[in-house]
Structure prediction request, 313 residues.
Amino acid sequence: MNWSSWTEFFAMGGYGLYVWGSYVVTFICILGEIFIISNRRRTLERQYGLTNGLNNKETKNETTS
Amino acid sequence: MAINWFKYSSPASFYSLAEKIIPIFIFVALILLAAGLYVGFFVAPTDFQQGEAYRIIFIHVPAAWMSMFLYVVMAFWAGIGLAFNTRLSSMLATAIAPTGAMFTFIALWTGALWGKPMWGTWWVWDARLTSELILFFLYIGFMSLQAAIDDPRRADKAGAIIALVGVVNIPIIYFSVQWWNTLHQGASVSVNQAPAMASTMLTGMLIMVFASWMYSIAVILKRTRIIILERESHTAWVAELQKKGALR
Prediction:
């Protein structure tokens, strides 16, 4: 266990700016990519005129009538 | 029973296969990420020379390896799509580019933040750094070239050309540290000799490498499915899926 306290952990031996600057930007990039993809997926589904809920209702009526 | 190797090269069957396997990759990626970060920060010791700054290695090296590897995979599928006119291969190449560009940016960014305390500078026109920057421009060039062409099939062909031409840059990046012997460190981990790294540091780094693989596969498969839907909206199998409400 390298760290005795949280403050020491965030200080990262004096290199905190660089280490956390790297990790934070990396996670921002990854979360950003995930957000972009799910956004692209949502606009695509809107184009198809379907949200999963709406779609199931339609097909159900068809089969029952 | 003859195995139909090409069953999953049709967008329709690939679409449903990808849907089933994506959650597996997401799950494994999260597990490996947690393990890698734990080993990286709490198991790996302080470096006698660089102190704690070296911990950037746990994202810098995986990102750099991924940026090179994803480019080769992208060029491979672009080449297959160009040669055999298989549209799913080209879709896969198009899906890889953004993730590859992101990893290249992360490699450059974390490299600069590591270089500042260790080399005293954010950037230097070193052979490795410059060729990695060229790789970033190649990714951006591939994406913008494809975006500039309306017809997807023509965009695939144009993209394949730039991807294949750019492949020469990958060995340049890899060997840049030996050929020009400039500022960037040589390969501490290579196939032909034992890694020159402490074992816990190496383990932490390798776990993060596999985590980045799992993440990339999940994200690229997800984007491929979107591209398939975008391009195949007029087809019968999509209409049928849509009617059945199975268009997840």
Chain A touches chain B at residues 1-3, 9, 12-15, 18-19, 21-23, 25-26, 29-30, 33-34, 36-37, 40-41, 44-45, 47-48, 50, 52, 55-56, 58-59 (CB under 8 Å). Helices of chain A lie at 6-11, 16-47, 52-64. Confidence is low (pLDDT under 50) at residues 51-65 of chain A.
